[in-house]
Amino acid sequence: MIAHLNGILIEKTPTNLIVECSGVGYFVKISLNTFSRITQENGKGIKIFTNLQVKEDSQTLFGFFSIQEREMFLHLISVSGIGANTAMLMLSSLSSDEIAHAITSDDVTTIKSVKGIGLKTAQRVIIDLKSKMNKIEFSAENIFSANNTNKFDALTALSALGFDKTKSEKAINKVLTDDQTVEELIKGALKIL
Questions:
Q1: Distance between alpha carbon 155 and the CA centroid of its chain, in Å?
Q2: What's the pTM?
Q3: Domains of the chain (ranges plus CATH)?
Q4: What pLDDT, in 10s, does the model give residues 93-108?
Q5: Do β-strands 24-30 and 59-64 pair in parallel, antiparallel, or remain unpaired?
Q6: Could you tell me the mean pLDDT of each successive run of 10 residues in the chain, 193 residues long?
Q7: What CA–CA distance (Å, rounded) separates 32 from 19?
Q8: Terminal C-alpha separation, the chain
Q9: From 37's CA, which of 14, 59, 189, 190 has a CA 20 to 30 Å away?
C-alpha cells in the first residue's frame, strides 16, 4: 500500500492532484477539504497521505491532507453501503471532525445533509462507527468556536482522566456559563459524572 507521497505538486484541481515522485506522476483523488488546505503552488514540494483502492478494473489513489482525514475515510468505507466515492463526497461536505462529532452525538441530520446519503445510511454510519469515534481526538477549531476554548480544554482534561468524551461533553454543556474558568468547568462536570 502507498501510505503517503512526498514530491512535487504538478497540478491541483478541486477533485484531484498530480504529484511527481522520482520522475513518476501520481494521479490522486482528493476531497474539497484537502483541496482547500493545500496552499502549495505547482512546482513546490508537497506531502500527501494516501490510500490505494484496488479493484478488478481499476487502481485508485485517494489523497488526504492529514492522517486524521485518511483515518476517517477508512472508517467510512468500512460501513456497508459507503464506497470510496461516497466517503470522499462526505469528506468534501464535512470535515473529519464534524463527521466524528455528528456520529458521537447521534446527529443523523448532519450526516444526511451530504448529497446521496439517506436516512438509513446515515443511521448505519452512526451505529457502525460510534464506538470508534470516541477514540478519535477532535479539533477545537471545528467543534467549538474560537472563543470557547475553556470548553475544549475542560473536555480534553476529562478525557485525559479517562472519562467518556460523549458523557463529558454532555456534563460540561449542563454546567457551562459565559465566564467560567477551565477549573470551574471541570469541577462542575465531575459532580455530574
A1: 18
A2: 0.68
A3: 4-64 (2.40.50.140), 67-133 (1.10.150.20), 144-192 (1.10.8)
A4: 898 888 988 898 889 9
A5: parallel
A6: 90 92 94 89 90 92 92 92 92 89 90 89 91 62 46 76 80 79 81 82
A7: 17
A8: 43
A9: 59
At position 65, the amino acid (one-letter code) is: F
Cα pseudo-dihedral 158, 161, 162, 166, rounded to 10: 0
| H helix or E strand, kind and range, residue 67 | helix 67-77
Q: Which three cell numbers stand for residue 108?
A: 443523523
| Contact between 76 and 128 (Cβ < 8 Å) | no
CA–CA distance, 169 with 133 (Å, rounded to integer): 14
Answer positive or negative: Cα dihedral of 7, 8, 10, 14.
positive
For the CA atoms of the chain, what is the radius of gyration?
19
To the nearest 10°, report the CA torsion of 89, 94, 97, 102.
-100
Length, in residues, of the chain: 193
pLDDT at 134: 66
Question: Per DSSP, what are the bridge partners of residue 52?
Answer: 61
Instruction: Output helix, strand, coil percentages for the chain, rounded to the nearest 5.
Output: 50, 20, 30
